[in-house]
Amino acid sequence: MKRHEHARQELLNAPTDTDPQSLPYLAGIAKESLRLSKANPTRFPRIVPPGPGFQVSGLPVIPPGTNVGLGAYILHRNPDVFPSPDDFLPERWLEPTPEMLRDSLAFGAGVRQCIARNFAAAELCWLAEGLIRSGVLCGAKPVDEVIEVMEWFNAKIVKGRVELCWRE
């Protein structure tokens, strides 16, 4: 909950009309949540188009017609890019490396990336701001049990839950 307090102080010290996306630590919480989420645990399949094939530096040519794919889940947990990849560390986004920015694919990449990515990222910051300002997280405890996830394009939690109760 130390991180919650850090974000709470950042919010309280900012003018009330501040866009939450402009607050570095709060934006880091949103980015780190996306990095660790299992929203897209499977790979994004593609087929190498007709022509000479596809060359990745240091690897053999991939022939046309080959089914290839890239999994954001694997990239987001690469310890060479994200040290301590299973830890929730929003502060890593205060000074992101070019590799972190390159490998952040929560919304996909290129011409097929999510068209609502900017809205969704903003919504995450607004949600975090609302949760923190409401006080609902005060005294909250992390979930100790394992949350079981059914893998598909969008992950679905099948075991475990997180409950929030708004104060009256």
Which terms summarize this structure?
single chain, alpha+beta, two-stranded antiparallel ribbon, two-stranded antiparallel sheet, elongated
Can you describe this structure?
By secondary structure, this protein is of the alpha+beta class. Helix content is 32%, strand content 10%. It is built from five helices and four strands, in the order ααββαααββ. Strands 1-2 form a two-stranded antiparallel sheet. A two-stranded antiparallel ribbon has the order 3-4. β3 and β4 form a beta hairpin. α2 packs across α5. 14% of the residues are buried. This is Cytochrome P450 4A10. Its cofactor is heme. GO terms for molecular function: heme binding; iron ion binding; monooxygenase activity; oxidoreductase activity, acting on paired donors, with incorporation or reduction of molecular oxygen.
